[in-house]
Amino acid sequence: MQIYKVGGAVRDRLLGKPVTDIDWVVVGATTEEMLAKGFRPVGADFPVFLHPKSGEEYALARTERKSGRGYGGFTFHASPEVTLEEDLIRRDLTINAMAEDDQQNLTDPYHGQQDLEARVLRHVSPAFAEDPLRVLRVARFAARYAGLGFTVAPETLELMRHLSESGELEALTAERSWKEIARALMEDQPQVFIEVLRECGALKVLMPEVDALFGVPQPEAHHPEIDTGVHTLSVLEQAALHKQPLTVRWACLLHDLGKGLTPKDEWPRHIAHEHKGLKLIKAVNERFKAPKDCQELALLVGEYHTHGHRALELKPSTLQELLQSFDVYRRPQRFEEFIAACEMDARGRKGLEQRSYPQADYLRGAATAARSVAVQPLLEKGFKGPDLGEAIKRERLKALKAYKEQA
């Protein structure tokens, strides 16, 4: 029995990055031997075990062959005869197909270290094209390592293009796709994830609503970058630079989908794009079964982001409706995330990345003013039921009028 550290832990050590998760491969062992040593099996038919003390995953060396469509369409074969090289060849990228023993001696049959030094993301073997999830994974790694100068090898991009055209991407489950998308959006340069998906033709399969934004012009006075797709990428880039949470990044990606529906004869204006985009945002949310908080914020940002930009001009009654739509009295954090998404949208414009956004503090102040209305005095005056609700609304409107006059 020989045990090797494999994959990301080896890659990140060689890159000088912190190693968090460690994967282990066991060569020359049987399931019975693993159980005898106290390892606990994970799942019924997958040869993966948890270490009795550390809880880390140890997988028996295995081969695999395609047996159906999608990410799960594989048959695995694990036995003591499977070599380390045979196990590594089934992995996605050469930089993930290296192993090291307990003395840090490197086993690198597919030149992963060379590709690390050349800053290239390259597939290990033609079997790469058997797993459609790898299209998303490679795009995610491109987003993670773009800052180090990594690019996708042309021949790997070609295989990704082939996968995108094959219909295999449609076989991915919503859960698996979302897991990769969510992780990619939280990388340092999530816009690169979208760029790579677009380059290989996967974006128009997975998110045709986002793909449709490229080539759609906007008024140059507000959008020096002009192209709506380019703007969306810039907004996503700003969200990452400002360390925004996943909810905000997801909303930034989807906020302008309505502009993809504007008839060409109306370009570069996009009248009522906020409302038109809601059905598209809803469709993307449902396709990937995004978490509820991501779904809700994306819809609210899509509908109200131009309200955010015009905050200083809004009538007190419109401000009140906006605050009510976000339920700021019970869910203040969601309104904070809306403000963040609006600010990223304002900064995601060529040459305007450093602009100030006074609307943010103005909106926060409005929310504070409305929340400061005390309910107890109204109860003491005898208001109750629907009458109490109306009285609270009147007092909040008064507070917002006073706030606007002072601002």
Strand order of the largest sheet: 3-4-5-2-1-8-9
Main sheet attributes: strand count, strand direction, barrel closure: 7 strands, mixed
Count of β-strands: 11
* Rg calculated over all Cα atoms: 26 Å
* Low-confidence runs: none
Strand content: 5-15%
Contiguous helical run count: 20
Helix content: 40-55%
What is the end-to-end distance? 73 Å
The structure class reads alpha+beta
Shape: elongated
Mean pLDDT: 94
Task: Give a written overview of the molecule.
It is a single chain. This protein has 407 residues and is an alpha+beta fold. Among the domains are: 1-109, Beta Polymerase, domain 2; 238-360, no CATH class; 376-406. 50% of the residues lie in helices and 9% in strands. The strands form three sheets. It has a seven-stranded mixed β-sheet with strand order 3-4-5-2-1-8-9. A two-stranded antiparallel sheet has the order 6-7. A hairpin with a 5-residue loop joins strand 3 (40-42) and strand 4 (48-50). Helix 11 (228-241) packs antiparallel against helix 12 (246-254), helix 14 (278-287) runs antiparallel to helix 15 and helix 17 (332-347) runs antiparallel to helix 18 (358-371). The protein is elongated. The model has no long low-confidence stretch (mean pLDDT 94).
Write the layout of secondary structure elements.
Elements: E1 2-6, H1 8-15, E2 23-27, H2 31-36, E3 40-42, E4 48-50, E5 57-60, E6 62-66, E7 74-78, H3 84-88, E8 99-100, E9 106-107, H4 112-118, E10 120-121, H5 133-145, E11 151-152, H6 154-166, H7 174-185, H8 190-199, H9 203-206, H10 208-211, H11 228-241, H12 246-254, H13 273-276, H14 278-287, H15 292-309, H16 316-325, H17 332-347, H18 358-371, H19 376-380, H20 385-406
Parallel strand pairs: 2-5, 10-11
Antiparallel strand pairs: 1-2, 1-8, 3-4, 4-5, 6-7, 8-9
